[in-house]
Amino acid sequence: MIGALIIVFREVLEAALVVGVVAAAVKGLPHRGRHVLTGIAIGIGGAILVAAGLGVISHFAAGHGQEIFQAAVLIAAGLMLAWHNIYMAKHGRELTRKLKTLGSEVVAGSASITMLIGVTAIAVMREGSEVALFLYALVAGGTSQASLLGGSLLGLAGGVVVGFVLFAGLSRIPIKRLFQVSGVIILFIAAGMLAHGVQYLVQIGYLPALIPHVWDSSFLISGRSYVGISLGALAGYTPSPSLMQVLVWMASFIAIAGLMFTKSGRLDRKRNRTKAAALQTEQGGS
To answer: I need a surface site. Which of 75, 127, 136, 269 has the fewest CB within 10 A?
Structure first.
């Protein structure tokens, strides 16, 4: 029972943290709850299909099909989150104005709906398929079905509660600040997903590790601890990353943050203020 509880809680927590942040990031989106439930339903359906076909998937690419699948899912989710952040950096000010004037009637745009459903489905599908795999291993090891069911339900409830608490906390932030706070969190999540996806490819030899273990911080924060799991979901924390993983994380973070800054128009606004100040100085001198 304890094994099932820990496994399900860990996987549900990872999905719930991502879904909670993303759902809070689109505050004001009409029928947000329905879109989240749609994504969860698609994710559960996908997880069932993946779990049923794990044996087939694992035999692809000389036995590395499962790792390639995990890498593809993580990279797709990371790119989708990056796309959302860049979109919001460009249109966030406009959406903030509309949300203040139109309230719940505002249409935040198809980009936010697609991102919300897509990332929710991917997060649930990935973690759900891993739950199925781990629980199958427990059954094969002799764990009774009653203990498995009880532990799984407790783990599911615990993971959902933690994710909801995060979502509720973020949703209380004013809209203008919410876009900024959620944007920063999603930036970390996206970089972490891309780095984790690349690490799967490193593990099967498709990419070089460069340096297998740059550091080992497991003595401070274990990857299996609740703190380590949360940091892994929210920032891509790995106790002992390869240099390739670290470089991809840094490159992704810098690239996404740079595009967000460029698309936000802050640089143009700063230039315009500088020009206006210079013009006023010239006019005052004359």
So the answer is: 269
